[in-house]
Design brief:
Chain A: It comes from Nepenthes gracilis (Slender pitcher plant). The structure holds two protein chains of two kinds. Chain A is mainly α. Helices cover 55% and strands 0% of the residues of chain A. In chain A, α1 runs antiparallel to α2 (34-50) and α1 packs parallel to α3 (57-73). Chain B is mostly helical. In chain B, α1 (2-12) packs across α2 (24-32), α4 (50-63) crosses α5 (86-100) and α4 crosses α7 (115-124). Chain B is globular, with a radius of gyration of 18 Å. The two termini of chain B are 20 Å apart. The chains are: A mainly alpha, B mainly alpha. The interface between A and B is medium-sized, with 21 and 17 residues.
């Protein structure tokens, strides 16, 4: 078990985890109703579990590449993003006003009064 | 303490209230009901207390189907103590994201490995709902 092998495996494992996370979120975007989402999530999990024991680095790389291609193909055009996050509906809606600006409450009184 | 009571009361009362009928007992009940506590706050105004974060995180983990609820404490490591898979870890982080209405960036979410890290992250997140 050389260091380079382990480093590559660790990088691959991270890629797999990120791919699984994105794919799961996408599944939730497509299957909005919870019972449908649970079924689809189970199927996704089975696909990942089927390839769990592969040891060969190149095969794993190829499988990750196919997985990412499938993910790109199935991406939802309008994903649910939390409102305050970039891409959400509330993002930048009420930005903090720059410092130094203040509202003068003179209620329409004229200056020469 | 007074601030929390005042916030809960203001969040609940709409009509002018006769002072005599306002009892501390009634408003304390509101504190336990999570719906009334933040009914008029826009997202991000209220910050969760640490204990609330811990309680909610633990309840999410206990409800996870692959976890044995009796083993869950505030110090568990997901993969070492609870025997979860790395994919299960991903699912658990997603469940926590949904519970607290957060959007955790992918690389940060990858680092959330144990209960303690999760609680720290959520507590320090400004937009934790």
């Amino acid at each position: 078990m050389s260091v380079a092998y382990l480093a590559r495996r660790a990088a691959q494992k991270q890629k797999v985890r990120l791919l699984y996370r994105r794919a799961l979120k996408d599944t939730l975007n497509w299957a909005v109703h919870r019972h449908l989402f649970y079924e689809d999530a189970d199927e996704l999990r089975k696909k990942f579990e089927a390839n769990k024991d592969v040891e060969d680095l190149d095969t794993i790389d190829r499988m990750i590449a196919t997985g990412e291609a499938t993910y790109d193909k199935w991406r939802h055009p309008d994903p649910y993003i939390v409102p305050w996050a970039p891409g959400g509906t509330k993002f930048c809606r009420n930005p903090v006003p720059p410092a130094g600006i203040e509202i003068v409450y003179d209620y329409g009184r004229e200056d020469n009064g | 303490m007074a601030g929390i009571v005042r916030r809960a009361v203001l969040g609940h009362m709409r009509a002018p209230v006769v002072q005599k009928s306002l009892s501390l007992h009634g408003s304390k009940k509101l504190l336990h009901n999570p719906i009334f506590f933040r009914s008029m706050s826009s997202h991000g105004d209220d910050h969760l207390t640490k204990q609330e974060v811990i309680d909610r995180v633990l309840s999410v983990i206990k409800d996870f189907p692959k976890v044995d609820p009796s083993k869950v404490t505030a110090d568990v490591h997901f993969q070492k103590d609870l025997g979860l898979d790395s994919l299960d870890n991903v699912e658990l982080v997603m469940a926590l994201e949904e519970e607290f209405k957060l959007e955790i960036p992918d690389l940060e979410a990858d680092k959330i490995d144990s209960c303690k890290v999760a609680i720290e992250y959520i507590y320090n997140h400004p937009m934790a709902g």
